Amino acid sequence: MIVVLLVSLLYPFAEYALYSYFSVMDEEAHTQLGKDIIRALIYCAIWIPYFLKSERVKQTFVN
Questions:
Q1: Which of 20, 37, 56, 63 could form a Cys-Cys staple with 12, CB 3.0–4.6 A?
Q2: d(CA 27, CA 43)
Q3: Positive or negative CA dihedral for 13, 15, 17, 20?
Q4: How far, in Å, CA of 40 to CA of 24, rounded?
Q5: How high is the pLDDT of residue 8?
Q6: Could you tell me if 45 and 21 are in contact, meaning their C-beta atoms sit under 8 angstroms apart?
Q7: In degrees, to the nearest 5, what angle opens at C-alpha 44 toward C-alphas 39 and 45?
Q8: Contact of 35 with 59, CB cutoff 8 Å
Q9: Domain boundaries, the chain
Q10: For residue 37, what pLDDT is reported?
């Protein structure tokens, strides 16, 4: 699950880089991508530590 969260964090950065490289980003798209990046950072900052520290998660994902 952590890998999925990290990929969801990297996707907006990759999208921003591609749009910037091809110079097809208008002001509205720039603003939206900024919001997406901030949202992904906050989401990962909350959930990744939870998955790493939670006893409930450790008990759920047992081999």
A1: 37
A2: 24
A3: negative
A4: 22
A5: 92
A6: no
A7: 95
A8: no
A9: 2-60
A10: 92
Look at residues 12, 15, 8, 1 and name the one whose alpha carbon lies nearest to residue 43: 8
Which residue intervals of the chain are DSSP H helices? Answer: 2-22, 27-53, 55-60
First CA to last CA distance, the chain: 15
> pTM for the full model?
0.75
Contact by Cβ (8 Å): 9, 45: no
Tokens for 62? 């047992």
Query: Does residue 34 carry a pLDDT above 70?
Result: yes
If one counts every other C-beta atom within 10 angstroms of the C-beta of residue 12, the result is: 19
